[in-house]
Amino acid sequence: MSPLHNLSEETLILLLKKKNQQAFSYLYDNYADSLYGVVCRIVTSAEHAEEVIQDVFVKIWKHVDLFDVEKGRLYTWMINIARNAALDYRKSKGVRNELKNQPLSNIVNREEEQDRSQNERNAQADFIGFKNILDKLKPECRVLIEMAYYEGYTQQEIAQQLDIPLGTIKTRTKAAFLQLKTLLKDYR
Predict the structure, then answer these.
(1) CA end-to-end span of the chain, whole Å?
(2) What does the similarity note say (predicted)?
């Protein structure tokens, strides 16, 4: 057991800002799996997700001084870093070109792999209890949050994908986040 296992979040943050190696190891040991679950929802390849996670923890280590306790919790800050890194990776020109140049057999195999990994990602999302909350949303709200947060679509792209006017998407997204906020309050 880590000598840091009973630290408060505030003490952990102070140690991380002092670049304490044990604190960083503790952070990795306790948060890597749930951050990996977030990344896997966006980056479909396990190999690429592992690369993104490494990048995420490098960013956390380098930029922990930017974390502001007044703006939220450490875990929320780390999830945003993980999500943004995964979205950046997925939208990178090299990844898009790689996907365009795949033989048909690879695309079919990837879709089958994605179906299997979707079940794994659902289990990982459930690790942090978020899947249960998402499942309580109205279906049209859940789809919008999943497309925006986990798949990285902009509201314009969601409107195009669902063939719904952009104004409707914006209204529904706002309603979805309000519903999610209510569910999260009840969850505590």
Answers:
(1) 28
(2) Belongs to the sigma-70 factor family. ECF subfamily.
Please check whether residues 188 and 107 belong to one and the same domain: no
7 Rama class: left (phi>0) / alpha (psi -120 to 50) / beta: beta
CA distance 24 to 28: 6
The tokens for 132 are 């249960």
Are 112 and 173 members of one domain?
Answer: no
Domain end among 78, 111, 128: 128
As a whole number of angstroms, the distance between CA 104 and CA 6 comes to 51
Return the C-alpha torsion angle 19, 21, 25, 30, nearest 10.
-40
pLDDT in tens, 95-118: 555 555 555 555 445 545 555 544
Question: Where would I find the H helices in 43-138?
Answer: 46-63, 74-91, 93-100, 104-127, 130-135
- pLDDT digits over 76-99, tens only? 899 889 988 998 888 875 555 555
Supply the DSSP symbol for 136.
T
We report the CATH number of the domain holding residue 171 as 1.10.10.10
Contacts of 100 (CB under 8 A, 6+ apart): none
